[in-house]
Amino acid sequence: MGPTGARLDVAHRIRRLHPLLPAIRAELARMDHASRPQVVAYQERRLRAMVRWAAARSPFYRELFRQNGIDPRDIRTLNDLTAIPPIDRHHLVERGEEFRTFPAATMWSASSSGTSGRPVGVYRTPGSSAYELCAQARQWSWFGLNASSRRIVLRGSDFAADQPGRPVRDMSANAQLMVSSFHLDDEHLPQIMSAIEAFDPVAIEGWPSSMTVLAGLMQRHGITLPLRGIITSSEVMSGPSRALMRAVFGGPIIDHYGQTERVTMSGNCERGTDHVFEDYGITELIPVEGHPDRWEIVGTPLHNWGFPLLRYRTGDEVGPAPSPTCPCGRGFRTIGPIAGRAEDVFTAADGRPLPLPSTVVDDLVGVLGAQIVQLARGQFEVRVVPGPDYDRAAVAAHIHRNTDRMFGLGQQLAIVELDALVAGGSGKVKTAYVIGT
Ligand SMILES: [Zn+2]
């Protein structure tokens, strides 16, 4: 379901040329310097519009409001928002299409199995995709970077399967040099480094696990590459992994947290403090039972008019913020460290590291759950929980295609059907983990 290949290029162009871009950028710049009351006033104005829009156009919310006796006109403030019952992944899995306010064909779809193996599908308007990029670019601007800053991108990238033997793809029009996450070994390093040198990047962006593998490989070969920023997202980073990236790439880490559902966004400022990007969405922190120092992140996005989500429980948890204020002076609240996706790096049959392996099961359709485990090097088991629309042959073909394209040919793969996913060693159900090496 995610845009790939030629479709990705089209999506990039549309987002870069969207007619609302100047207005979005101006608004984001204004909120960057807004006081706390101005931030709240902005959120409440957008909230009122979003709730009325959802009540009028989204079949799911029409029913939810009716069943709960909620008059959308009564939802005016952040406090009023709590009258609306929260929703979670189950609602998207079971009734995803009912959230839409526009025809599916006018939007982009995306899906993810997240951290717990339960895939969800969502829709995004071109405008909200443009907003997403602008919100990220605003954070980069705190570090002297912008959307045109030339950067190396390591984000899985099945593009490499379309051009065998070439683990890089120059997308200068988007200021990006794509580097495959799945070709980071001694054999491919010379080719990757010469492409990077020719590209002359100022930043590196992508999955921390992939960037760590590349940094480790470069360090072993005595290579450093001074950059102005290390842009990360999607995964939790360990201290040693941060230190390694800093040692090889020099620049500051610019990390942001978001979700496929795109309900909230947060990230660190130039002073190293994590802030909630409050104009992106309304972020509530709901206490986690039995854990006085943990909260679940619940988000109400304020920009995706085609797929309204109100009080969406992300399942992601956060610890206490180190300090309520930050010397940067922004009106955005500070937030503690987020316990997001943390996966083992798999190993291919030929010894290549395979970072963020759950990407293989991220876009399956017709399943209620999916996970992948490494039984041994190059030997993987995909476990699926069939849903009502499960098509065994189609799902199997999809998994084999993803594995071939991402991990490369020559892997051993078994697919098993289960009633429920299996917890790993930590006792937690994870989308990807290693049993044997
Ligand atoms: Zn700050």
Proportion in β-strands: 15-25%
Unreliable runs, pLDDT <50, ≥5 residues? 1-5
Question: Regarding CATH, which class of the largest domain?
Answer: Alpha Beta
Molecular shape = globular
CATH superfamily of the largest domain: ANL, N-terminal domain
Bin the helical content: 25-40%
Sheet having the most strands: 8 strands, mixed
Order of strands in the sheet with most strands: 4-5-3-6-7-8-9-10
Structural class: alpha/beta
> What is the terminal separation in angstroms?
31 Å
Q: Count every helix, treating DSSP H or I runs of 4 or more residues as helices.
A: 10
- What gyration radius follows from the Cα positions, in whole Å? 21 Å
How would you characterize the overall build of this protein?
30% of the residues lie in helices and 23% in strands. The chain is of the alpha/beta class and 437 residues long. The chain folds into 2 domains: 5-339, 3-Layer(aba) Sandwich (Rossmann fold), CATH 3.40.50; 346-434, ANL, C-terminal domain (GMP Synthetase, Chain A, domain 3, 2-Layer Sandwich). Strand 17 and strand 18 (379-386) form a beta hairpin. Helix 8 crosses helix 9 (239-249). The protein is globular, with a radius of gyration of 21 Å. Bound molecules: zinc ion. Residues 269, 271, 273, 275, 326, 328, 330 line the site of zinc ion. Zinc ion binds at residues 269, 271, 273, 275, 326, 328, 330.
